[in-house]
Design brief:
Shape: extended
Order of helices and strands: HEEHHHHHHHH
Strand order of the largest sheet: 1-2
Number of helices: 9
Largest sheet: 2 strands, antiparallel
Helix content: over 70%
Length: 191
């Protein structure tokens, strides 16, 4: 009897954490979307689909929603492409044997061990126009202050670079495992 449910018992804590951290908040926010809440009066009332109707039919809200959707799609395309390309190129680099390879690999994999908050703080200092590293180097070359987040192109490039730095390393071991597992005689035969 115990062996029959042993696998389910092993998976139960992970499913409980998934439910508490992901599924419950999603369902809760979906339920809240059917209510109108006014914080100044501390009142909440059921409005049904009125919030969705307002968001889809109001020109200002529809434009804002469409812009948010376009920006999200743009970030998804750019960040995933950057992560895949950088991760694959780094995996190709580390597939070869060279001196200090293990130590350099540890250094490259370090960003995935940092929290997202720590990475955000690091890049906020990196991009800071007053005393940031990037502004300092550009100021040495051009003689003027550099503000990366001053326009949309710079902001998108800065966010994509930060995201690629943080999320490219998890793909490296996957690609590297595939590259290293190919027998050497297949490369010799192909050559």
């Amino acid at each position: 009897y115990r062996r029959k449910y042993f696998g389910g018992l092993l998976v139960a804590p992970a499913i409980a954490v998934l439910f508490v951290m992901n599924i419950f908040p999603l369902l809760w926010s979906l339920g809240l979307s059917f209510f109108a809440y006014q914080s100044n009066q501390q009142t909440i009332r059921f409005v049904g689909l009125a919030n969705y109707t307002k968001a889809l039919t109001n020109d200002l809200a529809a434009t804002a929603n469409w812009n948010a959707l376009v920006n999200t799609a743009m970030f998804v395309v750019f960040t995933v492409a950057a992560q895949m390309v950088v991760g694959f190129l780094l995996a190709m680099l580390f597939a070869k044997q060279f001196p200090l390879r293990k130590y350099l690999l540890i250094l490259v994999l370090t960003p995935m061990m940092l929290s997202v908050v720590a990475s955000g703080v690091f890049f906020s200092y990196y991009y800071d126009p007053t005393f940031g590293i990037l502004s300092y180097f550009v100021n040495e070359i051009t003689g003027g202050q550099f503000i990366l987040m001053d326009n949309k192109v710079g902001a998108v490039a800065g966010i994509v670079f930060c995201d690629a730095w943080v999320w490219s390393p998890p793909g490296i071991p996957l690609v590297l495992a595939g590259l290293v597992s190919v027998p050497k005689y297949l490369y010799e035969a192909a050559a």
